[in-house]
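Protein Record: Sequence and Backbone Structure Tokens
======================================================
Scope: a single protein chain, as residues and as a discrete description of its fold.
Tokens: labelled as protein backbone structure tokens, with as many entries as the chain has residues.
Position: the record begins directly beneath this header, with no further notes in between.
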Amino acid sequence: MYDARQTTGAKQMPRSILDKKAAPSSHQEQHLKHYEAGLRFMQEGKYDKARAEFEKLLPDGPPEIRDRAALHLAACRRQTQHVELRFATVEERYDFAVLLLNDGNYEDAREHLEIILSEREDADFAHYGFAVLNSVTGQAEECLQHLARAIDLNPLNRLQARRDTDFTDMADDPRFTELLYPEIY
């Protein structure tokens, strides 16, 4: 085989050095693993985890990976920014909690209902909302407690609960029936 370096007087590099240059170092492999993990977490919607992986690349990652990681990091930060919601009234917060509940976001709905009750213990609608939340999440005891409190505060909640399909899972519980139809018992 003809090597152009032979005619120009350039020395041929020993094979062992060439092989070492071709193989990435463990440090480079680690950077690549962080980058790939960050991309995978982004695709899964786990932006906090992705952000942590990309942040590992910023101090000493290779420039081509570091630049891309910085772009992905900015996208992750935008996705994880929490906008502070402000409500003029507890009723507005309740409407938002119901929206969360209807979307299946039960923990956030619970958080907003707790805030309402911490501000106004006598908010019958918040107790009713908690009863619905507990019904759809399978917490019968808590459902009955909040529904009883909602009815005590506003007897019209009894009529509402009779027609509310969110209490379907509670229909077979005799305590629920007794709570909604006391005139029978």
